[in-house]
Specification:
alpha/beta; 4-stranded antiparallel sheet; about 400 residues; globular
Length: about 400
């Protein structure tokens, strides 16, 4: 275990002992931090609320999350942001840090009131929509740099989508589906990396899914660009070969090829990919019941992220448990300047369970993991010296 992390783990273990007593056969980790979640409130509370989302996060071992701005109202001004932060103060059981929008209404036409938002938001993003105009992104990066904030970009070139909804690969072609090409992701990343190098702003790429994105970001880091990136658990474990004709396999970006999955795994191993974020995106059962073509984009992931990665990456010897904790707890906090304090989670790493969405605390039920056997059960989550989740079993 890295020497810089060891003392911190020991302190957390002492804190956990106060709540659980005997910790034999249990592992104590810093509280996880997810820089990319959708809690849907205000505006879409039938999908998720800040309370239900933060409870689900706590069950998954998270003590800090960053909520994306595709809400109603969009947090593009101090007044609109207050509609969200008022609920956070009232209902959140863990630390919830909102993003501010890059553009008004996330429409890509006019910059949001970034000056008034800067103090109260973790970063700026138009997640769910790529900023299409290069001049608008340049202006956003310049403003973000002056404010000392990160631009976190959903990279998607709308001119390359062609109505697609799953990866433009073998499955799409053999099953008659419209595909989303990898170029729609990596071409906008390529554009933004040039801007970030030119302007010198802090730039973060959301949910990368393809090998070209890994290569571009790796090269940019070598050139000194201030860039970090995330991928999601499902892109590291699943690919287009796992697709079924079911809306619970539909997300954006889509599950891509096995070669893309392997490139992402290499990216987390060599440090190109800095962190893992769930892109937790709950929808109603009706919205996810219309197959691959008609269902809404998005799956839930907060309650299964760590067990999934523990099962398929750690237990298979692909990465160490320490590396996984860096990706889920240490690195995201470092990049987004999120304090840890004595937040922790306590796991039985060898306990197995079958994923049953009916048992989730999130309102969302759509997951491609339903019925899978995973290893790792969270026994306890402590945030700010308070127990926010405890396994009754």
């Amino acid at each position: 275990m890295d020497k810089t992390i060891k003392p911190q783990y020991q302190t957390l273990r002492e804190v956990a002992t106060e709540f659980l007593g005997d910790l034999s056969h249990l592992a104590v980790f810093p509280g996880f931090c997810d820089v990319h979640v959708h809690f849907r409130e205000p505006g879409f509370s039938y999908k998720e609320t800040i309370k239900s989302g933060s409870l689900a996060a706590a069950r998954g071992g998270y003590t800090a999350v960053c909520t994306m701005p595709n809400l109603n109202p969009v947090p593009d001004s101090k007044e609109h942001l207050a509609a969200q932060t008022d609920i956070i103060k009232r209902d959140a059981v863990i630390a919830v840090y909102p993003y501010g929008a890059i553009t008004k209404g996330e429409l890509g036409v006019e910059l949001a009131d970034m000056d008034s938002l800067a103090y109260d938001v973790i970063a700026f993003s138009d997640d769910g929509r790529g900023v299409q105009d290069i001049g608008m992104m340049r202006a956003a990066m310049q403003k973000a740099k002056s404010l000392g904030k990160i631009i976190a970009a959903h990279c998607e070139d709308n001119t390359l989508l062609y109505g697609g909804y799953i990866h433009d690969g073998v499955y799409a072609r053999t099953h008659g589906h419209k595909g989303i090409c990898s170029e729609s992701e990596y071409k906008q990343i390529e554009r933004d990396l040039k801007l970030a190098e030119e302007i010198g702003c802090k730039y973060h790429v959301c949910h990368i899914s393809c090998k070209e994105s890994v290569e571009l970001i790796c090269d940019a880091k070598k050139s000194g660009v201030d860039v970090t990136c995330e991928t999601a658990p499902h892109y590291l474990v699943l690919d287009e070969n796992d697709l079924l004709e079911d809306g619970r396999f539909k997300m954006n970006p889509p599950l891509r090829s096995s070669a893309d999955k392997e490139a992402l795994i290499e990216g987390i191993m060599d440090g190109t990919i800095d962190m893992i974020a769930t892109d937790h995106a709950p929808h109603s059962a009706e919205e996810k019941s219309k197959g691959l073509s008609g269902s809404a984009f998005g799956i839930v992931g907060l309650e299964t992220a760590f067990p999934l990665l523990n099962t398929y990456l750690v237990k298979k010897g692909i990465i160490s448990i320490d590396k996984l904790i860096e990706l889920m707890a240490i690195n995201p906090r470092s990049r987004f300047n999120i304090a840890l304090h004595k937040d922790l989670c306590v796991w039985d790493l060898d306990r197995e369970f079958i994923v049953n969405p009916d048992e989730f605390l999130t309102y969302g039920r759509a997951t491609p993991l339903s019925g899978k056997k995973l290893y790792g059960v969270n026994k306890l989550t402590v945030y700010n010296d308070k127990v926010v989740y405890k396994d009754n079993n």
